[in-house]
Amino acid sequence: MGITVVCLLLLVCSVSTEHSNTGTDVETTAQQISYQQPCLQDVHAALKELTASLAEQKVEMRLLQRENEGNASTFLPSAGQVAFSASLLSDGEATIGPFNGHTALVFKNVVTNIGSAYDPNTGVFTAAVRGVYHFEWHIGVDSSNTAAVLVKNTNHIFTAYEHQTAGYGASSQSASLLLEAGDTVCVHQWTGTKIHDNQNHHSTFSGHLLFTL
């Protein structure tokens, strides 16, 4: 819009100049000269206004660019995103236990391990960042007693238990825990119990980060 105004003003000034060159009347020439002075002033004022407008738009574009960069970073995958899920067996069928003491369960069949916080070789989850995490564990049993406890570092949190006199049964538990970076979480099989799993993956251990603190 500013550029259009400048162009129109320049056109008017050009026409005025042509008339002054062809006119022979001194009074007319004087009038043309007096007209050109405010015309040039208008051009100068329009250019000044246009320059200020362009500078303002440049500042606004920089602010919008910074805002867009900030919004884009919000949707990028974060290093704090953590989620895992695994079952005891990848295939086949087996009954684990009984043991003479609490024994860490190693859920080897990993289907999800975003952030690689879960170790399928030890069955231990290690928190990478401080935050609240949610865990779930499910255990199957066939005609026996079963129990599995969630362990944070060395502390027993919640226990899933099932007494099945005949046939197949299962038990489940869950917990949300505040963890510091470096804290560990795993599932221990209770002393003297059995846990059953097969190709249907009844016995599982899962967890994910809810939010950082």
From TrEMBL:
Stretches assigned to coiled coil: 40-67
Keyword Signal in record: yes
Annotated GO CC locations: extracellular region
Main localization, broad class: secreted
Signal sequence interval, chain numbering: 1-17
Pfam families the record matches: C1q
Domain C1q, chain residue ranges per copy: 77-213
Matches recorded under SMART domains: C1Q
Location in the cell: Secreted
Alphabetical keyword list: Coiled coil, Secreted, Signal
Gene3D superfamilies on file: 2.60.120.40
UniProt xrefs under PANTHER family: CEREBELLIN 13-RELATED, CEREBELLIN-RELATED
Descriptive protein name: C1q domain-containing protein
Organism ancestry: Eukaryota, Metazoa, Chordata, Craniata, Vertebrata
